[in-house]
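Hi R.,

Here's the chain you asked about this morning:
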Amino acid sequence: MIVRDGKRIEALTLLEKVERAFDNALAALLDRHGPEKAASLVDASRRVYLSAQSYLLAINLRRLLLQTGLYCVVLGFAVGSVLVGSRIMFTLIHQEMSEMSHDVVRANLPKEVETADLRPTIQLASQ
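And here is the predicted structure, written out as tokens:
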């Protein structure tokens, strides 16, 4: 209960307000049109409600599918760009490390020492 200006006012929840409005509308419908007409109007309103509910469910399902598809596209793009970027970085690091190792071998190994594959390619490259 809420007290406003010395008068008590009921604090209804939304569900209670809807139930009270429905009861009032049904009572007015029965008083105005009689039970047979009221039953047909209630049945028609139920059919409209169910069709509207199924329409809203279809819209929500479409929205969910669209959001899921968009999420998958964004996630795929992110994963793909990370993989491509890491491959590029790995290639650049590998090239730089190979060049550095060739420089170290060229500077520190005497010419008489031959390594398995490295020395002949270095001698050919330096000539």
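One quick note: The chain has a mean pLDDT of 79.

Cheers,
M.
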